[in-house]
Amino acid sequence: MGDKRLKLGLTKNVWIMGVVSLLNDLSSEIVYPLVPIFLTSILGAPASVVGLIEGIADASANFFMAISGFVSDKVQKRKPFIVTGYGLSTASKFILSVSFGWPMVLFSRITNRLGKGIRTTARDALIIESTEKTDRGRAFGFHRTLDNVGAILGPILSIVLLKALMGNYRLVFFWAFVPSAIAMLLLFFLTEKKKSSLDLKGMHFEWKKANVSFKLFLLISFIFAIGNSSNAFMILRAQNLGLSVSLTMLVYVLMNVSSSLFSIPAGILADRIGAKRVLSFGFLLFSYVYLMFGMADSSGVVWFLFPAYGLFLALTEGVGKAYLSRLIPHEIAGSAFGLYQVVIGTATFLASFIAGLMWTDISPAAPFIFGSVMAFSAAGLFYLLNRWIKVHPQSQPIPLKR
Predict the structure, then answer these.
(1) Could you give phi then psi for residue 5, rounded to 5 degrees?
(2) Quick one: signal sequence residues (predicted)?
(3) Do 105 and 215 share a structural domain?
(4) Which pTM was predicted?
């Protein structure tokens, strides 16, 4: 690849992206668990508004992941997308610190998630381009590790800042801006390779000729995702069951710790017993966790449910994409994953919007019961899909049209 290796056998770009990810995730996780509490307790917004904000924000990220990945492939440039994406996320922290109404919070969250959507695929592509094939597992593992460190330290620092600043949420949000701004400075040290001569013209995805298993998996993913509302509702549920703000932050830390601890073992398990089994268990675990959130009548169970949800994240975040990758030819993986992100983005918006309405108009338990039913349904359909694939092993791959 031509890039000089530094410590741990990793290139300069990989080290920079790892540290940037740590600082940005640290910043984001100081803010994220406080936003639903800030909205409902300080600004007086109903849960339906929380659902609307989180739904639009998460959907924005998914849609822009699809678009930016395609565009960055076309122009063969990564750094502009990375800098723009992290810049938007940095700006969102400052916007949040001066928010005095929920529309400004909505603007901040959309700005943050747009940043994530714009940078993610370009960042991953730059890591690939900056490493040899034999080092990519190590490079992505290193990046994910530092990302997890930021996700764990962020909520802890959030607790410290909230106490030190006498419960002033806006000041906490302002201080969250600082590590994100430092990360921005590091990005200017990234180096990019010359434009590739690879001709991608005419290469595109044909939906009508896509194999049935791919289409069915998209449908199953949509059904599951429409019940998987924003984690903001778990935070609100913890508050609803009687946890203080500090304890809610602490239990959120446990979720991130659990996700970090189990992410590598989950990947190893998927390699050994198959992604479909791990993903099936993930769907069923989610269904159980959400059912318990819905049925809970005291805060004690929350200390078990948040780490259990972290295990679900570890089981499904990478494994789902690994399963999907087996249903598509690698030449148009970007387009297929882009379509997957659009489907998930649409479902994510609906999930949080529906959850907010259910919380407000029915009960705080309703969104979780609904999510549990949808996840259980998805697990059943996923089982049938794999039975169908077993009976029809010669299903045609998704073709390329040139």
Answers:
(1) -80, 140
(2) none
(3) no
(4) 0.82
